[in-house]
Amino acid sequence: MRSRDARKAESNVADIYQKVYEAERPEIFSKSIGWRVSGNGMPIRIRKDSQWNVPEPELVLVINSRREVVGYCAGNDVSSRDIEGKNPLYLPQAKIYNGSCALGHGILLCEGDEIKDIPIRLEIRRANEAIFNGEANTSIMKRTLPELIEFLTRKLDFPQGVFLMTGTCLVPDDFTLQPDDVVMIQVGELKIENRVLGS
User: Which domain CATH number covers 133?
Assistant: First the structure.
């Protein structure tokens, strides 16, 4: 819900985001193929052709080929908010580029019904000083996890399984990432830390 409000504020066509939050069908898009994903301690990137780049901490479901949740990890859906805000059709350019996705620091194995009320924390450090701290919980998500899984896997097979980023609940306002910032995300017991590189 926080993401919806932030996207409405940044967009030239704000009502499109309200419509997707009210619709039966959720917004689902491809974020990254495996070889482009950064792990814990690896760099993430921001776009030079964007003036507003933000981290988006997310619960990431780990789903096997039979559409079963086998665990979760922490994720960072790095995004160029101003590119997306200019036109929703620019979403792939705002979301999919080298260094725009980080996952880790491992996978906490569990069943889907065990994943509830997971705390999510975001800290951004610049020059060794915390410039943003925020916390949220998966209990405030608009969509249920089974609902997201069902729509993702409807008419779409994943023979090797898939990681499903469930959407952000922490959006830093009036802030953009800069090179050498350090982004720390904690989802439940799992943490990832990534330094920002320019692109």
Answer: 3.90.850.10
Q: Is the peptide bond before 105 cis (omega within 30 degrees of 0)?
A: yes
Identify the pLDDT of residue 2.
55
Task: Give residues with Cβ within 8 angstroms of 189, minimum separation 6.
Answer: 108
Which residues form the domain of 156?
Answer: 2-197
Question: Encoding tokens for residue 70?
Answer: 């086998």
Edge-to-edge order in the sheet of strand 69-77: 101-109, 69-77, 57-63, 162-165
Handedness of CA 121, 127, 131, 82 (dihedral sign): negative
In the chain, what is the straight-line distance between the N-terminal and C-terminal CA atoms, in Å? 30
Residue 98 has pLDDT above 70, yes or no: yes
DSSP strand pairing (129-137 vs 119-126): antiparallel
Work out how many domains the chain is built from and give that number: 1
What pTM, to 2 d.p., does this model score? Answer: 0.90
Contacts of residue 37, defined as CB under 8 A and 6 or more positions apart, other chains included, come to 101, 102, 103
CB 36 within 8 A of CB 98: yes
Task: Name the nearest CA neighbour of 21 among 137, 120, 139, 141.
Answer: 141
